[in-house]
Design goal:
Blueprint lengths: L2 H15 L28 E2 L12 H5 L1 H11 L9 H17 L1 E5 L3 E2 L4 E9 L2 E10 L16 E2 L4 E3 L5 E2 L16 E5 L12 E9 L5 E12 L8 E4 L4 E4 L8 E4 L3 E5 L1
Parallel strand pairs: 1-14, 3-15
Antiparallel strand pairs: 2-4, 4-10, 5-9, 5-11, 6-10, 7-8, 7-10, 11-14, 11-15, 12-13
Length: 270
């Protein structure tokens, strides 16, 4: 098979599956996937935490960090960013850095539980470029090793409560999953998130889970993972391509997306 044929075949497969040829980071969430998830699914995204690649092959963490995987590409004017002037690129970088600084994820729960006890876990996030962000409960703050919290012995016992930007409950995304399949997911999408780095205004959301503690005594981990986009919050994240005659919207490459972890909590089951 020639190189040209291989490229055409790959393009045909991508178009058939309805996948974009250029990753759009995280602005659209996962509208067609209502299931548990872990951070490995966002391999194109950048990380703000070098510790998220602890023990990985040499050099892997550096390649995945925001400065190298995302901002360096903007500064170089590559991958679509050549449509911006050098001054615009620096302005865009400033907007992105402000948004990253304002984007946080915090997990709260009781420090201990009885075996099999149902406990409440609350995750609060700020920032993020919408319109959609993703939030999950996992067992460790690691991009390549984290699992959904069921792998650590926790059980999600009910549909999580999703409170969006206005702190009104959202059910639309969860209810795309059939009720008979159960909606006790450890991963959710939150719609309607809005951040504005120019005005210094930031998105927010809160997720409340009910978890059943493991049956055996021990210390069990809980970590929140936060998927968010960065460029759509900036006015420079939406520009017109004069050659292709269409708008490029935040995220010329998947590196503009982020995976951020909360601090890990060890819950004592006794």
């Amino acid at each position: 098979m020639t190189v040209g044929v291989r490229i055409a075949t790959i393009a045909l497969i991508v178009l058939t599956l309805g996948l974009p040829l250029v990753a759009g980071a995280y602005p659209g969430g996962t509208p067609n996937f209502q299931t548990d998830a872990a951070p490995f699914c966002a391999g194109c995204h950048s990380s703000r935490q070098e510790s998220a690649f602890a023990g990985a092959p040499p050099g892997m963490a550096a390649k995945q960090l925001v400065e190298n995987k995302h901002l360096a590409v903007i500064r170089a004017g590559q991958g679509g960013y050549e449509l911006l002037t050098p001054a615009q690129r620096e302005e865009l970088i400033g907007h992105i850095q402000a948004l990253d600084a304002a984007s946080t994820v915090k997990l709260n729960t009781l420090p201990s539980a009885k075996p099999g006890e149902v406990v409440t876990v609350t995750v609060d996030v700020t920032g993020g470029a919408g319109p959609v962000v993703g939030i999950a409960l996992v067992d460790m703050a690691h991009r390549t090793l984290a699992r959904p919290i069921a792998g650590a012995g926790w059980q999600v016992v009910d549909e999580p409560t999703v409170l969006g930007q206005d702190f009104k409950e959202q059910t639309e995304w969860l209810h795309l999953r059939p009720a008979e399949a159960m909606r006790n997911l450890s991963f959710v999408n939150v719609k309607g998130i809005r951040s504005d780095p120019v005005a210094g205004e930031w998105g927010r959301a809160q997720i409340v889970w009910k978890l059943r503690a493991p049956a055996a005594p021990g210390t069990y981990p809980l970590v929140a993972a936060y998927w968010y986009g960065s460029e759509k919050a900036s006015p420079l994240g939406i520009i017109e391509d004069p050659i292709r005659g269409k708008l490029l919207r935040g995220g010329y490459a998947g590196g503009s997306g982020r995976v951020l972890f909360s601090d890990a909590i060890g819950v004592q089951v006794r």
